[in-house]
Amino acid sequence: MALPSGISFSSTHAVQLPARFNAAVPFIDRHLAEGRRAKAAILTREETVTYAELAERVNQTGNTLLALGLKPGDRLLMVVKDCPAFFYLFWGAIKAGIVPVPPNTLLRAPDYAYMIEDSDCGLVVYSSEFTGEIAPALKQLGTKAPKSMTVDAFLPEVAKASPVLEARLAAPEDDCFWLYSSGSTGRPKGAVHAQRDMVVTSELYGVRVLGVTEQDICYSAAKLFFAYGLGNGMTFPLWVGGTAVLDDRRPTPETTFSNIETFKPTIYYGVPTLYAAQLAALETSRRDLSSLRACVSAGEALPGDMFRRWREQTGTVILDGIGSTEALHIFIGNRLDDFRPGTSGKPVPGYEVRILDENGDPVPRGESGRLWIKAESAAKYYWNKPDKTAETMVNGWLNTGDTYREDADGYFIYEGRSDDMLKVGGIWCSPVEIENCLVGHPAILEAAVIGQADEQALIKPKAIVVLKQPGDAGAALTDALMAHCKKTLAPYKYPRWVEYVPELPKTATGKIQRFKLRG
Questions:
Q1: Which of 42, 45, 120, 135 is the most buried if burial means most Cβ atoms within 10 Å?
Q2: Nearest CA to 463 among 418, 500, 430, 503?
Q3: Is 267 part of a structural domain of the chain?
Q4: In this predicted structure, what is the pLDDT of residue 514?
Q5: How far is CA 216 from CA 99, 265, 269, 379, in A?
């Protein structure tokens, strides 16, 4: 499908946009002129929303927000589940010049109180399911609390509003929306994204790597509130005139398989934790996944063994990649015609990547270092965090905080967060490598590896694992796991201790929070 009028990409994949621009126009409005009025934009278990209905409700929502007193540049905090109202609020705000801020919907009242105050938002709109956390957050702020209303109270006002709204134009580099980082260490940070950023990720990764087209139906088990899900479940299908499947329930093997069988998506997006649970479920029941032409994974590195088992069970490959809130979506990824299990793949066209040592110098290929990237989709700055901005965003480059190495064939291999790396016997050791080895054992569902001091106060690997069958835990299995690692890994890397737990702490994106295990 041709690019929208006035938008182009150069031979270096740099985006050219009109001097005055509003992201809602190519993502929402243009589909009416291009003949998609009656086409399904959104599918849910309760309703189907056409592109004509979506465009009208986006306009009505923008007008409603303005009528409630929000002004261009004001922030709208939208704690909204995966449903059509998320689309209406997000794009209606953008079209009216208001900045939508969709935080994680799994947080608690103190987190929301912090974000409401930090963002200085003019309105909070939230799904009624989250009242138990939002109400105390607002109460905690007292007289500093902004106006607020539930989605159920907001939508009747939308229905009364004018369906005509002129897009408020801005420069492509002007503020468009925020995403709060997952806050794996310290308070979450508001990453400020520009009008152009969704265009860049949707075209360079969505179209040019995944090959998303108008015929695709996209289903993301990863939720809309974080960067990965926002692209998967909203901007990629809207960019090409495709269809998005939304489900507001917590994703489980049963709900995801049911949605795939019902809606017949062509592209499915998950995280390794969910793929592991789905593989366990497929061991006892067969499901119809024949509609899928591609599966995608991000959030945490996908073990090579999981890739192979999924391919054996389903006949499709999982394309692993790495992205971030700051970069907006995947910037290194595998492709359908170029993939290698156990790696994050190769850089997405238009993204520059380098691996540096602790002195800021490039490391030789094959050696580990910190991953830095340069991208037109990168966040401009962190709101109210000048020190963090200066530390992370340096001369147009993003410090990802991830440790990587590049193999001889140009595939990038994730070795963990830089502060998760272990030094064992004076040699740097990747926890991810040991975890992937453990997950290759048939008894293991998930694994995390951290450093622990031995009796000589020397750091050695410790494995914390979740079993497929909890009753298997015991000394015999511990010995078997250590032997399995010794056989597969360099001798110094095997875990000296194994702890069995019912679940691992994770962020909303599925990343294991090793710092909590260390604590």
A1: 42
A2: 500
A3: yes
A4: 87
A5: 29, 7, 13, 28
Work out the pLDDT band at 184, boundaries 50, 70, 90.
very low
What sign results for the dihedral spanned by CA atoms 4, 7, 9, 14? negative
Residue 215 DSSP code: T
- Residue 151: both structure tokens together: 């989605």
Amino acid at 175: D
**Surface-to-core class of residue 8, CB atoms within 10 Å of its CB (0-12 exposed, 13-18 middle, 19+ buried):** exposed
- Any idea what the CATH number is for the domain that residue 271 is in? 3.40.50.12780
Output the pLDDT for position 425. Answer: 65
* pLDDT of residue 490 exceeding 80: no
The domain tally of the chain equals 3
Cross-strand pairs, 346: 333
Q: Are residues 66 and 42 in contact, defined by beta-carbon separation less than 8 angstroms?
A: no
Which tokens belong to 297? 């994974």
- Tokens in use for 173? 């580099």
Same domain flag for 409 and 474: no
Q: How confident is the model at residue 194 (pLDDT cuts 50, 70, 90)?
A: very high
Residues 441 and 403 reside in one and the same domain: no
- Name residues whose C-beta falls within 8 Å of residue 305's C-beta, 6 or more positions apart in sequence: 436, 439, 440
Q: Which amino acid is at 47?
A: E
pLDDT class for 182, splitting at 50, 70, 90? low
> Is 0.85 surpassed by the pTM of this model?
yes
Q: What is the mean pLDDT of residues 473-486?
A: 94
Residues 325 and 451 in one domain: no
Which of 6, 199, 241, 224 has the alpha carbon at shortest distance from 100?
A: 224
Say how many Å lie between the first and final Cα of the chain, rounded. Answer: 51
User: With bands split at pLDDT 50, 70 and 90, how would you rate the model's confidence at 110?
Assistant: confident
Residues 6+ apart with CB under 8 A from 142: none
Beta bridge partners of 224: none
